[in-house]
Amino acid sequence: MTNIAFNKSRDLFERARKVIPGGVNSPVRYFKPYPFFVESANGSKLFTNDGNVLIDYCLGYGSAFLGHANPKIGAEVKHQIDKGNLFCTPTEKEIQLAETCTKIIPCAEMVRITNTGAEATMHAIRLARAFTNKTKLIKFEGGYHGAFDYVLNKAGSGAATKDYTDGILTESASKTITVPFNDIESIETIISKEENRDDIACIIVEPVLANTGLILPEKEYLNNLRSITKENNIILIFDEVVTGFRLALGGASEFFGIKPDIATFAKALGNGYPISLIAGKREIMSGFAPSGLVYQASTFAGNPISVAAALKTLEILINEKNTIYPKVAITCDKLVAAIKDIIHDKRLDVTLNSIGSMFQLFFSSIPVRDYDSVKSTNIQSFNKLFKVLLEENIFIPPSPFETCFISTLHNEEDIEKTIDAYETALSMVMKS
C-alpha cells in the first residue's frame, strides 16, 4: 500500500479551525481526522498542498463533468473577465443561455437563471405554491434540495449524518411531508388523506437520488409519479442539480423520457462555476417577478462570468454529445464491472449501484433502494474503504451518503489505477 502524508493539510486545518466554524465552509468537506487541502486541479486530478496527486471521483460533487480547469471554458471566462465581471443589468449572453436551455431541456419553455442549486429549488417550490395556491409539499427520504428549513426533513448529503434541526422553524417544516423513495403506495396514501387532498402544491424529487449514495428509480416509478401529480393537480419538480446535463444533455427528463412541470439545474451547467437555473412551463414560470408576484431576486444572478462558462459548457456538450455521453458511460461501466468482479471473487457483502457516469458502493448484502437501506449499510467499513483509497491516491466523497462521478477526462490509466486501489482497499476492509 502507498503511504502518502498530509502534514501540511493538518497544519492548515489547525489554522482554519481558529477562524472558520469546524475548519470548513461546508460540512461535507470534513472527515476525520482532518480534510486535505487542495492547491489546484486539472483534468481528473487534484493537487494537494502536501504535493499529492489524487485521481478525483468527487469532481465538485458532480460539477466538473468536463474535467477540472477545462481549457476551453477557462479561455471563455478569461475573455469575459477582461470585459467585466458584474453589471447588474441584462446582457445578451443571458438570452443566449436561456434560448439554448429551452432547446435542450424537455420542460423548458422559459428559464430563470440563478446562482446555486439551493436557490433554484427554494424558488421553484415557492413558484409551485403560488401557481397552485396550495401550501404543502412532498419530498423523499434521503432527497437533498439544499439547506433551507422546509427541505431538511430526512435529507441526504451531509444532513444525513446527524440530526441537524437547530434553528429550523417547526411551522415551516410542518408543511413538508416526507415519504420513502421507490414506494408509490405511500404517495397515494398521503395524497388521499382529507387534510392533504386539496393542499399539496408540489412533489420535489431527485429523479435519481444522488445525495443518499446513489439510488435508482425502480421501473415505472417516475412514470407513476408523473401520472399521480397530473391526476391531482400537483406540480412535479425534478431536482436535476446533480443529474442535469450529466445523465444526458436534457438531464434525467430526457434519459427517462418524462417531462416534469418544473426542473432545477446547477453543478454541471457551468462545469463548476456558480450558476443554476429554474426551467418550466411558460404559464408557471410567468409567475416570477416582474411579470408575476413571486418575488425572486439576486445581485449575482446571470453574472457574465458564470453565464460565459455555462454557454461554453453547453456548446461543448451539444457539439460532442454523441461522443461524450457514450464515452463516460463506457468508462463508468468498465470501472463498475471490475469492482463487481472483485466483490464476487472475494465473496463480499457489498452492493454497487450505477447509472451513466455515476456510481456508489455500499457495504450491504441487500439491494439499496431507499434511504432506510442506505442507513442500514456498514458505514464503518465504508469509512475504512475511503481511507485506504486515499492512501492509494484515489479520492471519492468521504461518505456513503454521496455519489462518485466520472468526468470526460478520466482515462484508461486512471481507471486501471482505481481498480487496483479498490482491490487493495476491499481486501484490507475484509481483513479488519
UniProtKB/TrEMBL annotation:
Metabolic or biological pathway, per its Swiss-Prot or TrEMBL entry: Porphyrin-containing compound metabolism; protoporphyrin-IX biosynthesis; 5-aminolevulinate from L-glutamyl-tRNA(Glu): step 2/2
Keywords in alphabetical order: Cytoplasm, Isomerase, Porphyrin biosynthesis, Pyridoxal phosphate
Pfam families: Aminotran_3 (PF00202)
InterPro entries: 4pyrrol_synth_GluAld_NH2Trfase (IPR004639), Aminotrans_3 (IPR005814), Aminotrans_3_PPA_site (IPR049704), PyrdxlP-dep_Trfase (IPR015424), PyrdxlP-dep_Trfase_major (IPR015421), PyrdxlP-dep_Trfase_small (IPR015422)
Catalysed transformations (reactions): (S)-4-amino-5-oxopentanoate = 5-aminolevulinate
Family: Belongs to the class-III pyridoxal-phosphate-dependent aminotransferase family. HemL subfamily.
The protein's name in its UniProt record: Glutamate-1-semialdehyde 2,1-aminomutase
Species assigned in the record: Candidatus Nitrosocosmicus franklandianus
